[in-house]
Design a protein that fits this description.
Number of domains: 1
CATH class: Alpha Beta
Helix content: 25-40%
Largest sheet: 7 strands, mixed
Number of strands: 7
CATH topology: Rossmann fold
Strand order of the largest sheet: 3-2-1-4-5-7-6
Order of helices and strands: HHHEHEHEHEHEHEE
Strand content: 15-25%
Radius of gyration: 17 Å
Distance between the termini: 31 Å
Length: about 220
């Protein structure tokens, strides 16, 4: 029998975890969050602050020079990644919304990271296929339409360097991957299928981690 050495985080423990984060604060995060909330229900697509801290920490630890993200939204993940890039590093950010990415551009400018980020608008898969099929990226963050994740993965993997890291967001779907309530929407089916695929894919090593709404951390062999 496996040991169950974990606890469920209630609101008080989550607050404790946030309060004991060291060395990562972003003075613009709350302002970006407030601006994003003005968009209404879609604001839930913004990554939480602790996930932003995780991204910055991971990118800095890996000394990433060439990063890519699929799904810019209002720029929170791009801001977090750009903060952690090695000197001279760049981030290519792919999205299709002029409205949302206008907010991203504004906050990247205010944060002083605009020069590290190239934003390309259009269907993400088309933008990916326009990139030469060479191993150029050290790090990839995927947080976009869930039914497109598998296609993004297959397009990205040849463009990742050996040892490069891919991070997929929302891989627990709020617990719906277990289908406890009987619902089985297309996004959840796509995420469940990708979780199974990544677990068995010999091209990578991977971990499904209970960070935020679940992240799948993959390293290309």
């Amino acid at each position: 029998m496996a040991l169950q050495n974990y606890i469920r985080l209630d609101d008080a423990l989550c607050a404790y975890v946030r309060e004991h984060r060291s060395g990562w604060t972003d003075p613009l995060w709350r302002a970006l969050q407030a601006e994003t909330l003005r968009l209404g229900a879609v604001a839930e697509m913004m990554i939480p602050e602790e996930e932003g801290a995780f991204l910055t920490f991971l990118v800095a630890t890996l000394r990433v020079r060439q990063a890519i993200e699929i799904g810019t939204f209002t720029g929170a993940s791009g801001l977090a990644i750009a903060r952690g890039l090695a000197e001279g590093g760049t981030l290519l950010s792919l999205d299709r919304s002029e409205e949302w990415t206008a907010i991203a551009r504004s906050f990247w400018e205010r944060a002083g990271v605009r020069g590290r980020i190239e934003l390309r608008l259009g269907p993400a898969l088309e933008s990916l296929h326009a990139i030469p099929g060479e191993a150029i990226f050290d790090f990839a963050f995927i947080d976009a339409d869930k039914t497109g994740y598998d296609a993004y993965y297959e397009a990205l993997l040849p463009r990742m360097r050996p040892g490069g890291v891919l991070l997929f967001d929302n891989m627990l779907r709020g617990g719906r991957v277990l289908d406890r309530d009987g619902t089985d929407d297309p996004d959840t089916r796509a995420i469940r299928a990708l979780n199974d695929k990544l677990r068995n894919d010999p091209r990578i090593e991977g971990l499904l981690l209970p960070v935020a709404d679940g992240i799948y951390l993959c390293r290309k062999r």
